[in-house]
Write a structure and sequence with these properties.
The structure is a homodimer of 278-residue chains. With 278 residues, chain A is α/β, with parallel strands linked by helices. Chain A folds into 2 domains: 88 residues, Winged helix-like DNA-binding domain superfamily/Winged helix DNA-binding domain (Arc Repressor Mutant, subunit A, Orthogonal Bundle); 146 residues, Glucose-6-phosphate isomerase like protein, domain 1 (Rossmann fold, 3-Layer(aba) Sandwich). In chain A, 52% of the residues lie in helices and 9% in strands. In chain A, the strands form 2 sheets. A 5-stranded parallel sheet of chain A has the order 2-1-3-4-5, with helices on both faces. Chain A has a two-stranded antiparallel sheet with strand order 6-7. In chain A, helix 2 crosses helix 3, helix 3 crosses helix 4 and helix 7 packs across helix 11. The longest helix of chain A is centred in the middle third of the chain and has 22 residues. Chains A and B meet through helix 5, helix 6, helix 7, helix 8 and helix 9 of A and helix 5, helix 6, helix 7, helix 8 and helix 9 of B. Chain A binds a DNA duplex (30 and 30 nucleotides) through helix 2 and helix 4.
Chain lengths: 278, 278
DNA sequence: CTGATGATGGAATGTTTATTCCATTTCTCC
DNA sequence: GGAGAAATGGAATAAACATTCCATCATCAG
C-alpha cells in the first residue's frame, strides 16, 4: 500500500504564482506520462495560461483537454477556470493600468516633460526585458568568479558609462570590496595602482571611449583579468577582454536610461561580494 | 438630413490600440448618454478589457451589458469578443514570456548572479511603473520652467545620488546647456560658482546627505531657485526647495536600480534643453 | 399635445468553453 | 499470463458568456 504517495491527491490550491511553481516542482517525476506532459508544457508557458482556453493549452501541450483538466485538479484547483484565475490576477496586478497611464502621459503633447518621462520609462522597460531575455548566464558566472578572486577591482567608465562605474564604486565600498574608480580626475596616474592579482571591470558603449580601451589593454598586458560590460555586437572588443558581457540598452532620442546596464552591474557587484564572504 | 453625421455608423475595426484610441477621440461628444458613459469608462480602463467579461466592464461602467455591446459595434467591431481580441493580443505581445524568463532566472538558485539580475530587473520595473503612476506633472512642468530660465544649472548629488548627478552633467553638456557638477573633488570650493540667475538641481535620498542639504540651503539663501529630486515623503525637505520632485525607487536588498530616478532626471534635462532652444 | 425617431434595459437565445463520465487501453504486480 | 488498478481519449453535459430582440421610455419637431 503506497501510503506515502498521497501528496498526489488534492489539497488546497496554490494562491500565488510562486506557490504554483513549488507545487509543480514537488510533483515533477511522480506523474503519469500524459500529466507530466501537461506539467512540462505549463511550466514552460506559464503566462500563456491567462489568455488561453483549456482547448488551446491542451492542443499546445499535445494532450486531450480532459488530461489538462485532470492536471489542474492534481495541482489542487477545482478545474481550469480556477487555475486560470490565478494567472489572470497576477497579470492584472503586474500592469495596473500602467499602459493607460503611459498613454495618457504621452498624450501630454510632444516635447512636454511628461511625454518624455513616458518615453524614457518605456525605453527602460524594454531594455530590462531585453536583458532578462538575452542574458548570457555562463559569461555572467565566469565574470563573477573572476572578479571574486581579484584582490582589488579596478573600475573604468567614462562619459555616459561613468555614472555606472561610479555607482559600482559606491556599491563595492558599501559591500566591503576593495575597488578603485579610475575617474581620470588627476590624469591617468591611477594606472600605477594596477597590480598583479587585481582585476579590471570596464564599461564602455559604442563609440568606445579610447581611455577605457587603453586601460583595458594595459591591464591585459600586465596579466590582469579584464571583464568588459558593453553593448552588442562586441566583436571589436573581444580581444581586449577575458569576459565580455553585453547588454542591449534601448535609446530614446540620443540618450539611454541605463536601467539594464545598472541592473546588470549591480548584480555583478552583489554576486561578487557574496562569493567573497563565503 | 444629417448626411455628415454618419461617422457614427460602422466601418472596419481598429487594428491597433493606438487606432482604438483615435476612434475613441473621434467619437467623443457625439454619443448619446449611455454610450458616452461606456466610452469614458473604457478610455480610463483600457487594459482591464483584455481580462474581463462584458458583464464585468458593463457593471464597472454602470451600464447594462447591452449598452456595452452597442458601444463595441459603434467602435467598428462585430461585438465584444472581437474588441477583446485586440487587447488580448496587445497584452500577450507586451510580455513575450518575459515573466517566465524572469522566473527561470530566479530559479537559478539563491545568491546566484542570474537570480540577482532577475531581482534587480523586477525592482527596476516596479520603480518605473510607480514613476509613471505617481508622477506629479504640475511639479515637473514647474521644475522645467524654473531650470530653463537659469543661466547655469548647478548639480548636486553625493553617494548613491552621485551617478545620477554625473549623468545629468554629461547629458546637459551634450545638449549645450551650461551645467556645473558639484562633485566635491576639490573640497567645497565650487560653492563660489553659485551666482544670481543660476539654479540648483539637487538629488538626495533618505538618509539625506548633509552636503546636499547644505548646498541647497546656501543656494536658497543666495536667492537661487532650487529643484530637489528625492523620495517620498519629502516633508523634511520642503523648506529648502522651491520644487520637490519625488520618485519611489524600489530597493532590492540594500541597493536600488536607480531606473526611475534616471528616467525622471533625463526627462527633466531634455525638456529643459528643448525649452531653451525655442 | 401628438406622432415619429432614437435610446434604453432586461429577458431570451445561441455560442463558446469548461467539466464530467465512461468505455477502452495501458500498466503493475503476483 | 492474468486480475486488478490506474490512466487515457473522446463524447456527453453543464456552465459561462456574448449577442440579439423587443417592449418601454425619452426626446423633439410640428
Amino acid at each position: 500500500m503506497p501510503t506515502d504517495l498521497h501528496p498526489i491527491v488534492p489539497r488546497d490550491p496554490p494562491r500565488t504564482v510562486a506557490a504554483f511553481r513549488d507545487r509543480l516542482r514537488e510533483l515533477n517525476g511522480r506523474l503519469p506520462r500524459r500529466l507530466q506532459q501537461c506539467a512540462d508544457h505549463v511550466a514552460r508557458n506559464l503566462d500563456s495560461i491567462a489568455l488561453s482556453t483549456v482547448a488551446q493549452v491542451a492542443q499546445a501541450a499535445e494532450v486531450p483537454p480532459s488530461a489538462m483538466m485532470r492536471f489542474c485538479q492534481i495541482m489542487g484547483f477545482s478545474g481550469y477556470a480556477e487555475m486560470q484565475r490565478l494567472f489572470r490576477e497576477a497579470l492584472s496586478r503586474g500592469m495596473p493600468d500602467y499602459a493607460t497611464r503611459l498613454a495618457n502621459l504621452k498624450a501630454g503633447g510632444a516635447g512636454h516633460a511628461s511625454t518624455l518621462v513616458a518615453e524614457f520609462v518605456e525605453a527602460g522597460r524594454q531594455s530590462m526585458e531585453a536583458l532578462a531575455r538575452d542574458l548570457d548566464e555562463t559569461s555572467l558566472t565566469q565574470a563573477v568568479d573572476l572578479l571574486a578572486r581579484a584582490r582589488t577591482i579596478h573600475l573604468a567608465g567614462f562619459r555616459r558609462s561613468f555614472p555606472v562605474a561610479s555607482y559600482l564604486s559606491y556599491v563595492f565600498d558599501k559591500l566591503g570590496v576593495a575597488a578603485v574608480l579610475h575617474d581620470g580626475v588627476a590624469g591617468l596616474g591611477q594606472r600605477s595602482l594596477l597590480r598583479p592579482g587585481d582585476a579590471l571591470l570596464a564599461i564602455t558603449f559604442a563609440p568606445y571611449s579610447e581611455e577605457t580601451l587603453a586601460l583595458a589593454a594595459d591591464a591585459r598586458a600586465a596579466g590582469m583579468p579584464v571583464v568588459l560590460l558593453t553593448d552588442p555586437p562586441a566583436t571589436r572588443l573581444a580581444p581586449v577582454a577575458d569576459i565580455v558581457l553585453t547588454v542591449t540598452e534601448i535609446d530614446f532620442g540620443a540618450f539611454r536610461s541605463l536601467s539594464a546596464t545598472i541592473a546588470l552591474a549591480l548584480s555583478l557587484a552583489v554576486a561578487v561580494a557574496a562569493r567573497r564572504d563565503t
